[in-house]
Please model this.
Amino acid sequence: MTQDNNNYADVKNPLMDVLRHDRMPHIWCPGCGIGTSLNCFARALEGCGLNLDKVAIVSGIGCTGRTAGYINLDSFHTTHGRAIPFATGLKLSNPELNVVVYSGDGDLFAIGGNHFFHAARRNMDLLVICVNNYTYGMTGGQVAPTTPLGPTQTTMPYGNFENSFNLPFIADACGATYVARWTAYHVKQLAKSMQEGLLKKGFRFIEVMCPCPTLYSRRNKLGDGVDQMLYYKEKSTIKNEANTKEVELSYQGDIIVGKFVDRERPTWLDSMNNHLSKALGDSFSPYGTNGGNHGQD
Model:
């Protein structure tokens, strides 16, 4: 049976409207999960019904930081660890925007950790998507705040002995209104979670576990990206509303995924307006009161 290959020349990628096709091909290695996560985010954008002219994406430095350059939104590629404060300023300068921070575990929780804690504490109205690949993939494979005990990294040649962060627990403890974790294997669940995050108010956090086959997997003899996807498939258990204290990760151990937190809290802007309205009365004009539509017309 023969096929007319010429027919494929006119087939359009269904997600191309939300991608910057002039930036393709992307820089990510074969088997890297960042591209898979970006595909899920593009699907979430397509299905959320938002006015994408009012959605902005901010990223930091690292492999995941390149996502902002591939999404066809108002995009900002900021300095190392400063994606969240930049996004905070963007949101407060134009509350009508739905602002997304999309970066890696090292960028968000090492040099950027302090900003994460306080943005969550304040309930700044941001969606933060963190790709966790256990390593600094762009700069040589150093140990990261999420590297579990045991695996080898360039800065831990005999195996990591530092305890790692439990990211969902940090986000929960700091007051995030939405906390979820999925892997690059759980594409449908991840896309749905991203869509929920886009439509919710407050500080929302999604951890995406992705393989880094070039540095982390190769150095620890874990195979390629397919091998890590099989690991995600076999070792993951969906447990929605799990206690975030109990979802810590270990080296090639079991993984608890799901939507852990979904609650309501006044955003920082709502709190400021409510407080100053009571303190100052009619002399205060609430700021950004039309900004709760999250990019909808």
The longest strand covers residues 255-262. The two ends are 49 Å apart (CA to CA).
